[in-house]
## 1
Amino acid sequence: MGILVAIEGLDGAGKRTIVGRIHNEATARGARVTTFTFPRYGESITADLASEALHGEHGDLRDSVYGMAIMFALDRAAAGTALRTACADHDLVLCDRYVASSAAYSAARLGETIGSSPVVDWVADLEYGRFRLPTPDHQLLLGVPPEVAMARSSGRAATDADRPMDHYERDRDLQAGVYRAYSDLAASGWMSTWSHAADDEAVAAVLDRLG
Ligand SMILES: Nc1ncnc2c1ncn2[C@@H]1O[C@H](COP(=O)(O)OP(=O)(O)OP(=O)(O)O)[C@@H](O)[C@H]1O
Ligand SMILES: Cc1cn([C@H]2C[C@H](O)[C@@H](COP(=O)(O)O)O2)c(=O)[nH]c1=O
């Protein structure tokens, strides 16, 4: 049975880049590694609908914090069996975003404080309770602050016409609130142990778990 590690962080923080590094370095050490990226765009209609909402479609869907969280949760729930099978067949299963994304973004959107947040409890009940998603063995918060992550998102949008900034990515106050929420989730050890690190330290924090 392998370990499930979730990589979390702001839009544009560099999650995909660090997941790629961890995947390659763990594979080079002989580990059997696989990666899931949430939302599963192109594979899941609920993921695509959520993205379309973040880019201005589907009326007032994006205004609903709980509505958006349900869309992301349904996408993950549909991947539950594949996640469990992957954990049985691999040494390391990496998730580029997982349940904590909904906890952090929803708490920040509602201005709730981690530790006394109804929406964070609701996300945990829905996804780990009702949908029975596997809990991560470890979560990594990529320690890239909002101003750096937003500069990377806007740089990417300027050079890649397929990656325009969405409603959340353009919102400076939201990004700052999400980073605070993530930092508090990590500090409180929400649902697993956490590392809060960047660059080589972030890669090492995950590889160390492989033993
Ligand atoms: N350590 C780094 N230093 C400088 N630029 C970086 C670094 N890591 C990633 N980038 C660049 O920042 C941009 C965002 O990186 P990436 O796609 O990995 O982020 P992400 O967190 O997965 O983004 P999103 O959640 O929005 O999909 C890319 O253009 C990438 O090349
Ligand atoms: C998986 C997931 C995502 N979100 C938020 C985070 C981002 O701002 C957007 C889209 O995700 P992407 O990684 O930029 O493609 O949605 C969320 O609130 N809850 C989630 O579970």
## 2
Amino acid sequence: MATATTAWNCVTRSSRVNNGVAIFASKSEVKASDRLRVGKVQMVVHEGLRVVHNAKVIGARKAQNGNSRKLIVCGAGMNLVFVGAECGPWSKTGGLGDVLGGLPPAMAANGHRVMTVSPRYDQYKDAWDTEVEVELKAGDKTEKVRFFHCYKRGVDRVFVDHPLFLEKVWGKTASKIYGPVAGIDYQDNQIRFSLLCQAALEAPRVLNLNSSEYFSGPYGEDVVFIANDWHTALLSCYLKSMYQPAGLYLSAKVAFCIHNIAYQGRFAFADFALLNLPDEFKSSFDFIDGYDKPVKGRKINWMKAGILESDKVLTVSPYYAEELVSGPAKGVELDNIIRKRGIQGIVNGMDAQEWNPMTDKFTSVKYDATTVMSAKPLIKEALQAEVGLPVDKNIPVIGFIGRLEEQKGSDILAAAIPEFIDQDVQIIVLGTGKKVMEKQLDELETEYPLKARGVAKFNVKLAHMIIAGADFIIVPSRFEPCGLIQLQAMPYGCVPIVASTGGLVDTVKEGYTGFQMGAFNVECETVDPADVTAIATTVTRALAVYGTPAFSEMIQNCMAQELSWKKPAKKWEDTLLSLGVEGSEPGVEGEEVAPYAKENVATP
Ligand SMILES: Nc1ncnc2c1ncn2[C@@H]1O[C@H](COP(=O)(O)OP(=O)(O)O[C@H]2O[C@H](CO)[C@@H](O)[C@H](O)[C@H]2O)[C@@H](O)[C@H]1O
Ligand SMILES: OC[C@H]1O[C@H](O[C@H]2[C@H](O)[C@@H](O)[C@@H](O[C@H]3[C@H](O)[C@@H](O)[C@@H](O)O[C@@H]3CO)O[C@@H]2CO)[C@H](O)[C@@H](O)[C@@H]1O
């Protein structure tokens, strides 16, 4: 660690000294001879004048004019670079976007310097051209990418600009990120995400970012990259093959987070040539489908390489971490690799600014735990009217929100609806995805005009109305790494009915904050009759509790929980610190510095 100690040039990390701002990593580095130059040295403030956000008071000192002042030192923290194919609210098809949207501000709140890097899929009206351009090798071509930037909630949001992102997704921020329709991928996804990984490695070095009150200049090289899912798996490979041999990023580390093992980025083996990596990396990508019954022909597997080449592997709940190593079915044929490498599960938080019944901009009535019982029926009536169901505040309403993929079990739910719909209940299903499953949703109204509605749209307002107005949220997932729907629902007193898998096990307590249905068959091609029965019997059990004092108690238990990113951020901090990147120090306990970004910041 470079340490130069002269008065007011006492620094521990050069990236943290700019415009006369000196940040001391520890009290011992501040010498008695130091003199305050308030104004130039922004981290030093007059007592009582202003408290520096996320700062620690480390002592009092006489200033030149003789006044006693408090010396305040910012928590040295870490330089963190989150990289993802989605970043909410700018781009989101599901939970990956939520995590890149919500966890970084929580880390910034604790005094870390935080950047996200994601593609510029659209003309985001709040992000400006930095005019910084870099040339990157993608396949056999050299491509120019530019960086756009905005600073929100204490986070540098960096967007990678290249026609392969913008031309494909124009005006469709909630879809077409990975392919023209659900289930079909763009042919050039490998080139697109190779560009994302390389651009993310350039951003901390080339961008001179000065929006923050506390940090300025480039992030430098002492950074922790947090790569998310298969799209970012090449990052650690490029770090090792392109930068470190050139003496760059020598102390940088990469944490790789698995949000969904179902999507691994498996491609033809010959495509390895597209990635511009040395041959010694081949074995990390080498993969054969179906390891019990190998399918002919080798493949490359991006996620396998991400797991093997990163410094730490994480996932989004402890129970999912256990499931991933339990066998090929739940580990989706990477269980052996994960077992070898080790994995840590940290349960996700949810965005407590977006999902707050007291401030929700999509609901007409605001409420908290003391007013939920009178407010929810009013929102329920608005919800019923919105989707065209009979308006009756006494009927229990069940909601479902999710991507329509086999993972989410909307097909199992469709099969179970006839088994419980004769009871006094209404159900509203919101989702987009596979056409066959969207069709199942469309058919609900015809089959059960007074009881059920399916809405095959990505509709944020309706998602909020369902969670605020419904009594129950059903999450019948075959597998669920964490699940954010149940986390978003509970602060609204919307009681979850969940399959016993992944993060649903970690976050919903049977009989206390919700209802567990048992684990479902993970075989995606069939609907297991046992799972249909499990849904029907658990829904019946939940409906029996509806309206009783026990149900009111469950609502209160749900609403009393702290489900924000605050606690998960602390766990992430401990884990990332353990990677030992040069100059990294713990942060401090802090509050977010700015309100939630606008819901839709893309120009349509
Ligand atoms: N039609 C629609 N209209 C409006 N909003 C909609 C919507 N469909 C879904 N959403 C929103 O999209 C998000 C879905 O998040 P989830 O975590 O439940 O699932 P997903 O499988 O996408 O995420 C993956 O990554 C996350 C993050 O790690 C894990 O929690 C999860 O288990 C894993 O599968 C929620 O914010 C939800 O409100
Ligand atoms: O935030 C929602 C999820 O977003 C990501 O999942 C996407 C996945 O990474 C993409 O590869 C693609 O998946 C398709 C897959 O490639 C294709 O072979 C076929 O099976 O259809 C899939 C669905 O279209 O799109 C996924 C989003 O729909 C992220 O990786 C997940 O963790 C997030 O849950």
